[in-house]
Amino acid sequence: MGALTKAMQTLQHYKGDRFRQADMSFAEFLGEVIERPERNIRNVIKVYADMVRHFVRDGQDEYRNDPESINYLHYDCSRLFVEGSDRPFFADRLFANRLIRHVESLLVGDQQNKIYIFDGPHGSGKSTFLNNLLRKFEEYANTPEGTRFEVVWRLKVPDLVVGGHSMASLAGKISQLLSEEANSEVEGSLTPTKEESGNWLTLPCPSHDHPLLLIPKEIRRQFLDELLENAEFKAQLFNEKKYEWVFRDEPCTICLALYRELLKKEGDPLKVLESVHARPYMFNRRMGTGISVFNPGDRRSQRNVRTDETVQRTLNTLFAPAGKVPYLYSGYAKINNGIYALMDIKSHNTERLMDLHNIISDGVHKVDHIEERVNSLFFALMNPEDKKVLTDLAAFSDRIEYINIPYVLDIKTEIEIYREVFGQHINASFLPRVLHNFARVIVATRLRTRSDAMLEWIQNPGKYELYCDKNLQLLKMEIYTGYIPTWLDEEDVERFTSKRRLKIIAESEQDGWQGLSGRDSIRMFNEFYSMYAREDKLIDMSMLGIFFRKYCKKDKTILPMGFLDSLLRMYNYSVLQSVKESLYYYNEEQIGRDIQNYMFAVNFEPGTTEVCRFTGDRLEISEAFFRRIESRLMVSTYDTTAFRASVQRAYTSSTLTQEILRDNLPITQTALYQQLHERYIHNLKEKVLDPFLDNENFRRAIKEFDQESFKTYDQKIQSDVRFMMKNLQEKFGYTRQGAKEIGIYVIDNNLTRIFSEQISLGQFTP
């Protein structure tokens, strides 16, 4: 029994995790407005925008110092769409930027009613996106940070008989009605109080009006100017579009009629406002309060007009003759200043969309003989083939705004989906980069083969055949991910202007409407992973190639011709750089001395002896001295004269006179030094594997690493292999097994010779 008692006490003390706040008088509400005007003066659009900003942190720009940046940022949407969700939605970088632009535009433009249609192909995750968005909106709107207040009327009712019933018995009946969810549309209640004699009619506004709308429109601006103390907020309130509703909107017909009739009786606006209270607008999707979501199969309600006869009789008694305060409203009132969503424009939702025409165009519709205003957010999901529904609504077109949700085009996001569905442990089954390459193949099926924006930028795609495909899809994927590859030459980086970047990102609106859907990619990954994941062998590129070539034979249009070969070349180049980087351990101090001595020596003729002003080294300046350093800078014999002259010119005209003497920079921070240093290091790394290419002992030592036989190799080979293995694991994320496999792969496939014969550094210009 003790356990039962304890459990029941836990239940007794649990009040729910939702925010609760008691009703407050109008004067108390104004006090809240003065204290926190930004929070307490906002409509549903502002609450929605605040919600997105609350859950989505500020975007990150990896190239924030780039003058050509287009503000294409990385937004972490996990708190909005992933955390706490049974079915997470993963927003790629393109869609995240699209969503943030949509939210920002709501606050800067004219806040007229529109319908926002999230348009995308089957399997792009539209329903998951909207369900998660609405769930987070409901969660946020029911917290102190997201709360928005609504009007509640509290009217004194005389103790008399109406229709043969005493007011006390009516109170009991209405209280019973209000306690039943099936009849939750009855909004009024008659309640006796202990503190005050008589009965009271508590009547929440069916349209969830903001309390400030009860201030007469003619004096609202003056009233708020005198009420508010925050000068900065007042400047926003009186000048920015997002607050126009405060001075433009009127209360609903019921509230307006109540205000006018009470004013006639009381003769004093302040006495009228004593009957006005404010309470948090509690959103509840399941009850259809503030959020209503309709699926295509949901039949339309036949109850177009909502009322309550008991409340109406009470109002008729208070404000005779009858009819001065009509208690009539529609189902749209329940989502006024909320969100109305249609899941796919099909079947009954097509009819609902037609019904929204006048509401969205004019903001009003008829409820019996009265007009009802509706200011809500209207969302809809649509598949491309359903757009024909809108052809009959040409006049409606200027009130429709599309936000595209195509298939994922960001490889990082595609991988997040695999990790969510199959578990984080899948990483351990792949060699580094191979999982990303699986995602690249999937994304390639979703991209259009020809990209005018890419070809306008890269006019000769063939020069990048070692790192990219002829259609530049692999490069486009990197740009969509927010990454500018390091293998681009200097000229093309300079040509990558903001105008060109905008054109490429704009093309994403047409990409992602074909190819493998999200469901298809999950099915294919499951098949691939089940086929190749083993404990004794990591998944490599050969397995990936075999798997997708099988599909290419079945459907020759699934991938552009030669794409898999290009992907393999890009992979080979990347792993080669990783191995070279992992073997590189030259003396950085000596490299710095060489470059400083060279920059000083080019100012003197061969055959002289000078002491370098930067290193203090005594230099025997000769052709042999120059050639030793120039060979490491990859300067050909034919170009030595021109190269020395260009370095000497840059040194005298800029490095010495401006950066060193004028700006007092150390030589190692000058632009010329940095360029020469980068070139020197690059060349050393290119040559780092040369001593090992024909050394069979080095290959066998890698294979036997971690075995007893490894100790039989000479100390130099042991040291080199250990150094490479350590760096591959620490710098590039390889496991010990993966590091062994990739080292053997680079040597067996002779990648160094293949690339060294074709790679060109380009023209160096100090």
What is the compact description of this entry?
The chain is an alpha/beta fold.
Task: Explain how this protein is built.
This protein is of the alpha/beta class and 766 residues long. Among the domains are: 127 residues, no CATH class; 173 residues, no CATH class; 100 residues. Helices cover 48% and strands 9% of the residues. It contains 32 helices and 16 strands. The strands form 5 sheets. Strands 1-8-3-7-6 form a 5-stranded antiparallel sheet. Strand 11 and strand 12 form a beta hairpin. Helix 16 crosses helix 17, helix 17 packs antiparallel against helix 24 and helix 24 packs across helix 30. The radius of gyration is 36 Å and the shape is elongated. The N and C termini lie far apart (86 Å). The C terminus is likely disordered.
